[in-house]
Amino acid sequence: MRIEELPSPCYVIDEGLLEKNLKILNGVMERTGSKILLAQKAFSMFKMYPLIGKYLSGATASGLYEARLGHEEMGKENHIFSPVYREDEIDEIISICDHIVFNSFSQLEKFKDKALAAGRSVGLRINPECSTQVSHAIYDPCTPGSRFGVTIANFRQDLLDGVSGLHFHTLCQQNSNDLETTLMAVEEKFGPWLSQMKWINFGGGHYITEEDYNIQLLENCIKRMKDKYGLKVYLEPGEAVAYNAGYLVTTVLDTLQNGIDIAILDTSATCHMPDVLEMPYRPPLLGSGAAGEKSFLYRLGGQTCLTGDTIGDYSFDQPLKSGDRLVFENMAVYTMVKNTSFNGMPLPAIVVLDQAGEYHIVREFDYKDFKMRLS
């Protein structure tokens, strides 16, 4: 099967590129003794969990359904953090998760005894109040008024009995210098309690598989926590696992002109690549250039009724025409997991490109998938 024969739109996960990332992450684990978990909130394609489980220590979840997916499809360490746990879900969560991180002392008091009685490791999320993000405020858990984690002003040493680990998550697509800065704040505020813990979780947002990421500094940070406090160190990256390992294959449906040449595609930013609007983010497009770089400039947009359903401005060597295939890169993470069928948009098919260069259609969606979510 050639790329021109694939259903459009479709996500293509490149198995070889995914494994390349996993080998980098596994190398960090081997050199430092740390454990790295897949953050399923970024990439939950369970077809690839056997491969991911070959290299990583397990998975982490943000709620019951992700926890079930990690338990059923990965079958290794299964961690969970949620801002709040529901009474009608906590028993099942405890039955399938070996590490349960609570967001507040009230949640800890409410459910800790159940978790400990089941032999689970109990953790507490802390908020070091150390913002290192400059461009993605929407993803900053240390922003004033954040609902994530216990601040030092609200810390209760008298309620730490049974707590074996501390968890923080403050980064988003950041390098290890920001982790180093955050760790200094963690030690300054919560240092007196680190030596009585068994583990610490650095959370996610580490861009470990990005080309200019400083892996040596990351490993120094891990070793510092291990040597100084005797802590086992966990990391739970999501994007770094599948970074640059997937594509979104789309087709031009029509072109028009309104002060700029416009191409309407069979995909949608708001439905199929929401980070384009939320971050915002301009995804790389194979064979294209920035405005002014190539001869023919187009504004690429989706087929929904949302005026802002625009992917960006791209230039090309030749004019676009109906039927042309376009391939957006870095489309594995925060795409499938955040899809919507707004306007009745069909969900893209899911395809795997194996290491022999063969395409395999894993899943296609139709009207029934749209209707089943409604009533």
TrEMBL record:
One Pfam match: Orn_DAP_Arg_deC
Keywords, sorted A to Z: Decarboxylase, Lyase, Pyridoxal phosphate, Spermidine biosynthesis
E.C. numbers: 4.1.1.96
InterPro entries listed in its UniProt record: Ala_racemase/Decarboxylase_C (IPR009006), De-COase2_C (IPR022643), Nsp_de-COase (IPR005730), PLP-binding_barrel (IPR029066)
Entry's Gene Ontology molecular function annotations: lyase activity
Domain Orn/DAP/Arg decarboxylase 2 C-terminal: 11-331
Gene3D superfamilies associated with the record: Alanine racemase (3.20.20.10), Lyase, Ornithine Decarboxylase, Chain A, domain 1 (2.40.37.10)
Cofactor: pyridoxal 5'-phosphate
Protein name: Carboxynorspermidine decarboxylase
Source organism: Metabacillus bambusae
